[in-house]
């Protein structure tokens, strides 16, 4: 219990509830002396799909356990976000992702929130905090390791062919970038 209190105090002291430049505690960053902070990853925005590496979306999601129905992810634009229930900036971005889901899901965008937390913890959290988009568990954190996630929240936007279009803090993803990956016509 003391560790949770210490982490909570550290989060408040660092002012993590705000958006922008901040440090986020990561479980992966815990060392022998306890948790450490890592700067939030702020990869430059990418808008040139031809220069971006392709990702096999089917392989990307093969180790995930989806809470609810597994969406059809191949052939669709995809936004993935690594997050955790205990992370204030992650919780702050949920409303933004819900808005993006509401606005762009019918136009083909799939959003998947990925966490390494226990299923019971995540389901309890979702009972109190609606998440309109898909949530998946990365139990062994293999996907987080593959993406070299050092800080959360961290998001990647892929076009329908699996090319990385953008990565960064989900609150910094603008709608102009999302529109770049959407099909010309709404989903029927």
How would you describe this protein?
By secondary structure, this protein is of the alpha/beta class. The chain has one domain (40-181): Glutaredoxin (3-Layer(aba) Sandwich). The chain is 30% helix and 18% strand. It is built from 6 helices and 8 strands. It has helices at residues 2-14, 57-60, 88-104, 119-128, 142-146, 175-181, and strands spanning 23-25, 37-39, 65-67, 78-82, 110-115, 134-137, 154-158, 164-168. The strands form 2 sheets. The chain has a 6-stranded mixed sheet with strand order 3-6-5-4-7-8, with helices on one face. Strands 1-2 form a two-stranded antiparallel sheet. Strand 7 (154-158) and strand 8 (164-168) form a beta hairpin. It starts with a helix and ends in a 7-residue tail after the last helix.
**Shape annotation:** globular
Q: Order of helices and strands, N to C?
A: HEEHEEHEHEHEEH
Cα Rg? 16 Å
The major sheet is characterized as: 6 strands, mixed
Q: What low-confidence regions span 5 or more consecutive residues with pLDDT below 50?
A: 1-52
Neighbour order of strands in the largest sheet: 3-6-5-4-7-8
Structural class comes to alpha/beta
Intertermini distance: 51 Å
Number of strands: 8
The H-level CATH homologous superfamily, spelled out, is Glutaredoxin
- Mean pLDDT comes to 75
CATH-assigned fold name: Glutaredoxin
Q: Return the CATH class.
A: Alpha Beta
> Share of helix among residues?
25-40%
Q: Please tell me the CATH architecture by its name.
A: 3-Layer(aba) Sandwich
Tally of helical segments:
6
Tally of distinct domains: 1
């Amino acid at each position: 219990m003391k560790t949770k209190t210490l982490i909570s105090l550290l989060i408040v002291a660092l002012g993590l509830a705000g958006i922008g430049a901040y440090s986020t505690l990561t479980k992966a960053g815990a060392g022998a002396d306890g948790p450490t902070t890592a700067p939030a990853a702020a990869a430059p925005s990418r808008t040139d799909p031809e220069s971006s590496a392709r990702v096999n979306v089917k392989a990307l999601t093969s180790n995930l356990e989806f809470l609810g129905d597994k969406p059809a992810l191949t052939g669709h634009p995809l936004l993935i976000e690594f997050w955790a229930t205990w992370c204030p900036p992650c919780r702050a971005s949920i409303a933004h992702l819900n808005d993006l889901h509401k606005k762009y899901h019918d136009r083909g965008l799939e959003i998947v929130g990925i966490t390494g937390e226990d299923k019971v913890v995540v389901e309890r959290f979702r009972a109190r905090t609606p998440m309109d988009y898909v949530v998946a568990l990365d139990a062994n954190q293999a996907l987080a390791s593959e993406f070299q996630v050092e800080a959360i929240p961290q998001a990647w936007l892929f076009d329908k062919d699996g090319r990385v279009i953008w990565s960064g803090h989900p609150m910094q993803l603008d709608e102009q970038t999302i529109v770049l990956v959407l099909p010309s016509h709404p989903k029927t």
